[in-house]
Amino acid sequence: MRAFSHERRKLSIAQISRQTDIPRAAVRRCLHTLARLGYVTVEQRDFSLSPKVLTLGHAYLSSTPLSASAQPFLDRVANAVHESCSVAILADDEILYVGRSAATTRIMSVDLSVGSRLPAYCTSMGRVLLASLSPSELAAFLGRVRLLPFTPHTLTSREKFVRVLEGVREDGYSIVDQELEIGLRSIAVPVTNASGKIMAAMNIGAQATRATFRHMEQQFLPRLRAAARELGLVLG
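Given the sequence above, the corresponding C-alpha cells read:
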C-alpha cells in the first residue's frame, strides 16, 4: 500500500514488485486480497488505492491520545512563531507525522500532512527519536538503512552520524540544515512522558532564509520545549 503515492496513483503488479522487492506472485495475492476487502480498485491491469484506506488512518488517530492531545500545543507554537509545527513518531525506519499545526506554511516541494512519512536519519524529529534508541537498536538501524544524499548537505557517514546523535542526546534537541531539501531548516525536541520515556518528537520547520541557527535556538527552542513538556504531562 505504501508503494502508492501522489506521483504514483496507479501501479501495475510489476511496478509494485520492483518498488517493494516482493515477488510478483506475492504482490498479486496481496492486491487481490486488498481488492476483495475494498482497499484497492482495479482498472484493466492497474491498481489504485480506494477511499476506504482512509478508515485505517482514522482508526489509528481516533485510538491514540497523542494526535488529539498535541493539536492545541502545535497550534499555539505555530501561532507564536508563524511557522509550521508538527509532531511525529518513529515508524520502522521513518518518521510518521501524527499531528500538524492547523495553520501551516508549505516549506517543502511535497505537501506534508498527518500520515506523511520521511526518512528518519535526515530529519530533525527523526534524529531526536533515533537518539533515544538503545545501542543495539541503533546498530540494527544503521545496518539496514542506507544514508542516501538527498542534498549536498545530507550526512551520509555512519561515523559522523553516530557522533551527531550523541550531540542530540546531550543537547536535548536537533537542528537539521537543508539535509532533506535545499532551503529547509528544522529544529526538534523530544516529547517525554512522566516516566521519562520519549513518546514522540515535536518540531518547527522553516525556510533557511527566514530562520538562522541563532534564531531557532533563541526563539523556537524555548517554545518547543515548553510545549513538549506540557504535552508530555497531558500524555501522563
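Residues 13-52 form one domain. Try to locate this feature in the C-alpha cell string yourself.
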